[in-house]
Fold these 3 entries.
Entry 1:
Amino acid sequence: MFQTGVLILTSPAHHIINKVSTYLASAKQLISNRLYIKIEPNFNQFRNQTKIPTSPASEYQLLLNLIPTIYAQASKACSHLDVRVLQTFAKTTNPIENVSTKLDIILIDNLVKTEDVSSYFKQSFSTECSIIRHLNVNDSNSTSVDEYSKFFNDEGPIEMYGNTVLGGTFDHLHNGHKIFLSAAVLRTKRQLVVGVTDGAMLKKKILWELIKPIDQRISALKEFLTDIDPTISYNIVPIYDPFGPSIEVPGYDCIIVTEETLKGGYRVNEERKKRNMPELKIYKIPVLSDPERNAFEELKISSSSLRMRSLGTLIQYPKPKPHLLNSPYIIGVTGGIASGKSAIVKHLQQLGAAVVDCDRLSHKSYEPKSKLYNQIVEEFGKDIVNLDGFINRKALGVKVFGNENLRRKLNNLVWPEVIRMADEEIKQHAKKGVSIIVMEVALLLEAGWEDKVHQVWVCIIPEKEAIKRIRERDGLSEEQALQRINSQMSNKERVDRANVIFCSFWEPEYTVSQVNKAWDQLQKFLTS
């Protein structure tokens, strides 16, 4: 198996377009990471045109339609591969391809001589590669062109523009993004400006806490765009409002939008009109349906769905902790108020984990016969004690809530005792031969107990859902519920320090599927 390769397609466009899925299925048997596709049908006679003609026989038009078809088929045939269609065939000059990743193998779609392929490759790519394989496809395994006819341009010649602009979040660059970006590149002669959503606008997105940092998203975009066409200039910038640079520069010619963001294109032109700028030509790209979606995800391929699929998976490899024994393996489960962590821990227990409930241990530390009882009463007053002698935790909570000094004093008393009792329970489980222990700790990260566990598993839910649950469970007002949430570490802070993330926002069966996925992957991790 090779990490990266290039597939050179030299057959006529009408042949290739019917064989795309078969080529991809063959290529995925050899490539594990990234597959570049070089379309080389020798249509040099069209390269000097400003507009790409639809004749003769619409062959060049069909050639351009190969690009969305390849990405659409890649989502079905090899979704694990990073497929990138090189687009310099549509340019006046055919530059040397300087792709960002070292190539391990050359794949070719017909039986030409190996020495001819080697000679062509040296002329076309600035990289060394000596391994060449031919892909022979079965004529019976063809894809109907009509299946992706919605991507085909039947409006006549394709207009090309000097400067184009588009925007998006571009998290987890997927095949839908690639169709969108490729359409923009094909229609750009000089510069493509890309606005990348950041800041407060991200909070409207599903699982926004999992969105990659802006510098990583910009870097991934730059690499992809430069890979597919290095002949034009790219200006990729963060944007913090719906418009970005599209309403700032008069010299833009065209804005590329999707079916879902078409209204945004109209709003851009409204704003430009207010500023006495010429309207932009609006070019609309269809969205790509997702063949792998489940009942909880969007119909289209989207970053939101990809973030949902990361739930229950190892998103950050655990750091070595040589001070901890390899067995039992300890998972620290934490999360904000009403995040559903207790239900998740209960399911982990059903799967076979032993549980150390630090909330229960915290309650135990308040009991009259505990070591801390007298210290707590002395520090916070006898008025927190009920007639039966037990500490009224609600009364104590009222005293410390909103008072950082008192809260710190209480934590400094309780936390050391809780971790001592937790250590005792862990030792008891270890003596019984337990291999996996789940330690449920609401304030695991706040207490700095990450070094007590091998991995940190975090439960999150959107703020609105947390408010709703707190109000229903505790009878609090919306303002009181929000105060409780704001007094805690944010979901984003927890996510940044997590190895695995769960979200219980959707139906319980979806949460259970996340836990099952995490448990299965943990078993493989521990036996690898």
Note: The chain has 16 helices and 15 strands.
Entry 2:
Amino acid sequence: MKKLSKVVILGASCLLLAACRNANNSISDASTFKASIELTISSGDIKGKKDTDNDVLEWLGIPYATADRWQAPENVTKWSGTFDATEYGDVAIQLANGAVTGSEDALNLDVVRPDSEEADLPVIVYLHGGNNQTGSSQEIKGSSFVNDINAVYVSVNYRLGALGFNPLEALKTGTNEENSGNYSLLDIATALDWVEKNIETFGGDKDNVTLAGFSAGGRDVMATLISPLFEGKYDKAISFSGGMTLSDEAESQDIFATAIAPLVVEDGVKPTEEAAKAWLLTKGADVEDYLKGISAERLASLMGNAAIRMSVFPHLYKDGTVIPEEGFDTETYNDVPLMLVTGKNEFSLFAAYDNRFASDFTSGELFADEEKLAEFTYVKRYGGQLYRLANGVESARTISDKYSSDIYIGEIAYGDNSEVTPDLARTFGAFHGIFEPMLQIPSNYATIIGDAFETEGTATMSADFKAYLKHFLASGNPNADGLTEWEAWTSANQVLSIDASTDSAQIKSSADTDTASDILEAMSADTSLSEETKKELDTTVLNGRWFSLAIDEKYDEE
């Protein structure tokens, strides 16, 4: 990380012995890692496992902190004996697939590295997606690609939902960081501190750490760029499909109080939801006691219908301590090389499972209904274009005047070409998460992609994509001999277009000059639907999403 250069200390043998990383993982020189699954970290001895199928070493479910509800994380108490790091740890408690699962005590992480003797490897710390309400470190496991990127991969579980974010005044009884309500960010910062303290034991370079995340994890990464809490905690950043979204604290308090009020009435504390909401907005110790007494299962069930809308589950609060009150308009960024990667059809998954289309899409009837298909195509096309911009070019435009490090933008188009991937193009195209099948086998999206990634072209595209990541992790520059040049973004709007034919990769430098206004004009000019239907779709399907500020402003002005 950003610190003084390493100092090589030469001396007697006793000093050399003291410099060894630990008793179970002694090293003969600074570039060698003893490929052992038994290590000693700051909290005690651990034992991982070898994955011989992928030729990697894994240590799973390692506790990196503990935290009482709505308080800052604290260091793990040292354990005696050897911690079994061969199984995934608990996931953060959450509402997933209609059921509450996980634990309120789930601050753990996974470490995966090549089964080699190489030390001082680049480190990538990954934050999973799930709207900061669901998900786990297992989303992308790392085992199938760490050899390709030659890095140590760390994947983090952190608090989610109303347990990971809560802005209510009654909880502001701690430090300024705790009072921010951004508990998930406190967890992530603590995980990075753990990495700095321990990653050399796993053969990683603590001075070459990249923070990466997908979807909500990518938005968290973007938020850390403006957070004083994260200054110097990492050296590069990658946001996969994660734009710049923050919440106003006062508005968020109102939404949280509205969401929790029914529980207050159910428990007989107040007679009406109106009275309950007013009470929840006070600073009283009685409110704090009540909130801390609600079961985690009930809290995890709140606001589960957010569907990438901050108005339902607001988080990442502009509190003035963890996130500046001016948000991304701040003049002070944690200025590190930044990679922004997006699919070109980012809204397709959300369109397909929106209430308007979900049943017909799932049954297949949507594709036999010409009018309904036209509606789906409209929201998929324009929602995808706006979402793509928000994830990449619009984010770069927002920060570029205050940012000196290089920004690299990649736009994945694979899946949109009906001649190459007819089934995928008809349904999801280059969907939210399209990068993942290029990294992970088996893919989480296996039922979506079918055999679309089983071609020579996708194999080459995936290999090139991993090569770009490898070089970016190592140096902050994704370019290398044999790869199409990935130009850093400037006012000329350079992006790397990533695609493939059946038999070859189709990767080229391009320019994305679109603006949200351009897309709104195209929507207005679209004659595939009536004006009445377009307005209905704009205000019920596309409205209020991460990317839809331009749409919302249009109708607010009417």
Note: The two ends are 50 Å apart (CA to CA).
Entry 3:
Amino acid sequence: MPITFQALFAPNILALKFALKTLLGGGLALWLAMRWGLEQPAWALMTAFIVAQPLSGMVVQKGLARLAGTLVGTFMSVVFIGLFAQAPWLFLLALASWLALCTAASTQLRSAWAYAFVLAGYTAAIISLPAIDHPLQVFDQAVARCTEICLGIVCATASSALVWPMRVEQQLAGQARQAWHNGLQAASAMLGGEDGTREGLLEILGRIVAIDAQREHAWFEGRSGRLRAQAIRGLSQKLMVLLRISRSVRRQWRQLDTQEAEHLAPWLEEARTQLATPDTPSLLLLRQRIWDAAHDERISPAEHFCLARLALLLDFAMAATQALQDVEQGRVPKDASQGLAVHRDLPLALLFGSRSALAFLVMSSFWLATAWPAAPGGLVLTCVVCSLFASRENGAQIGLSFLRGILLAIPVAFLVGQVLLPQWSSFAMLCLGMGVPLFFGALGMAHPRTGPTATSYCLHFIVLVSPLNAMHFDVAAMLNSAQAMLMGVGAAVLAFRLVVLRHPAWLGRRLRAATQSDLVRLTRRDLRGADSWFGGRMADRLMQLARHASELPESERKRWDDGLHGLDIGDELLHLRMCLALANVPMAGAERHYLQQLEAALASGPAPGQGQRLDVASAQFIEALRRQPPSDPLRLAEGAVLQLRKSWGKWCRWQEDMHGAT
């Protein structure tokens, strides 16, 4: 069945509920706006559709973000008109700079609060552009737009919370269990040497990042939602560490000779079996048996390091299971964990903002050159599309979806607004005329594949019909407005197509530089929250590298391996520092000297011929460790130093393979 036909004519029950709730919230907002005599009731109706989300917490958070962005954008529009009303070019340059700044800020945030910056950018354009010919009325228009938008937010939020409420925190338990199950399966696969498949690792990283993002929405759903949000934070951190430790166990396994590997193979297989069907008592018993085996004096140091890390892996498997139970039962975890950090690239964000400003200035030049009365409408659409999609990987495709939505809205709006409504004269008939097309649009919004086009269709249908207490029917004005919409969105799509800023090779170099910078900081960063900070940022970078790998030549696609080398070194460095912290022995001088040598090597980066750079420092530090009274943390620290040296050498050899020896 075609996706569009399924979304519109064979929707599931959840899509029907979403469409009815959205229509109810929008209808209430429109009725109140017209009942109170607001200047543009269409803005209240549009806002209700803009903030519509399937889950209650999402609506509340998006509504608050939109409210905050609207207030800031309103204030800035008054400021711009007050300062530059007599100088059109200065006004447009100031507005373009503000749009660039807000676009850049929104790309730096990976949460729903980024929407506040988006709103702050294009709300200033929405209010100030129509007011440029009447600057003395800008304050009245700003107050009117704020009132209408706030009314739409309140009505949409009330409808979502009171009618068939669907809470984020109720769905988090199922998503958390699925992420936990996939995480343990991925760890088991890595233990078996199946870590070469990019898709498996990317899938679990994507699930962990996605469920961690959901906790923001649950925070707005009362006490139980906040408790689950805190538990989700702990689960995400535990799963991320579990994946990294499973890779470290496999790295240690590769250091065993054939006889040692055969000796430890039963332990590895038993651990994989327990991870496939985990239960805490069995994991605890296996962990104790492995730990006892690791202290057998007959095994080699390499076997000890491997078994000790396998025991640590089981510790985190049990910790992840406990975190899952905290999520399902809605209780605060015993250990407070930080949320996953994200990779932020300020220069890239500024470039995205510059692209938005450039598209805006091109349309502004067209407006000033032609003095087209409808051009401000197209200019507003350019601002909206650039603000929303400038940082998206598929910004041009989403922009084209917006264009399709406008093309669908034009004939429907003509039929309703210019043929039917002139013959009808009551609010009930207005609701009938607009409600049926908007109902089908809301059904399309509920489906991920048709969502962008359906959202654009609904919003532009409302703009083209423009419901008022005293309706004005003008076919020429409607068609003029439709042309301006198409031109505005087309200008934004053209900017996305022509000004390509995410060149894969350039992006790979920037991500590599950011990884090196994080590794350098990791040598001296406070260990509290370091796991979440480094793991979250590296997961973000690995997913970016994977998304662009297909665009690179075959010889360049191994940049994914470059990211994995950085992940492995960061994992070993964290493991080393945590072992030293647990050992609590007086060797600050030797530790400081080794970390300084490691920091210098990481700052310069891996290069051909530099694989032995850490050999001397590693040997000296291992000797210092062995002079201390023997303990388990110190023995694990020794294994981490050896792995750091091997991982560094492997990274440098990888550079030789990629770029040739010097």
Note: The CA atoms of residues 34 and 359 lie 35 Å apart.
